[in-house]
Amino acid sequence: MQQFLLLLNRKSSSDITSEELQRRLNEYQEWVETIPEHYISDNRLDKGGTYVVQDKPVTTDGPFAEINEIIAGFVIIQAGDLEEAAKITQTSPLLQYFDIAVRPIVG
């Protein structure tokens, strides 16, 4: 089995109520329980952070989306191949809230 990174990219603003967040987390946890043989780990990313280019932090402030506004978190799964990983991803309730990039992890 190969590992795959599911990179969660925001579709819209991340400002949601705590009740909505809990509902989404419950949906996600239920999904994870349906794929125990594939699930490895996951994590949300904090809103803070910086972007480093040639060892210097870059601060941006403008009309362009910053990386911390786009990438919300990640999930790591294992699957036989990229096609299977994509099929597993298609069953995720996270697709309602995120675009998900599926990338093989080099082992």
Sheet with most strands: strand arrangement: 2-5-1-6
Low-confidence stretches: none
CATH architecture: 2-Layer Sandwich
Number of strands: 6
Strand count, sense and barrel status of the largest sheet are: 4 strands, antiparallel
Shape type? flat
What fraction strand? 25-35%
| Oligomer designation | single chain
CATH topology: Alpha-Beta Plaits
Task: Explain this structure.
The protein is of the alpha+beta class. It has one domain: Dimeric alpha+beta barrel (Alpha-Beta Plaits). The protein has three helices and six strands, in the order βαβββαβαβ. A four-stranded antiparallel beta sheet has the order 2-5-1-6. A two-stranded antiparallel ribbon has the order 3-4. A hairpin with a 2-residue loop joins β3 and β4. The longest helix has 17 residues. The protein is flat, with a radius of gyration of 15 Å. The model has no long low-confidence stretch (mean pLDDT 85).
Compact description:
The chain is of the alpha+beta class and 107 residues long. The protein has helices at 18-34, 67-70, 82-90; strands at residues 2-10, 39-44, 51-53, 56-58, 71-79, 98-104. It has a single domain (2-104), classed as Dimeric alpha+beta barrel (Alpha-Beta Plaits).
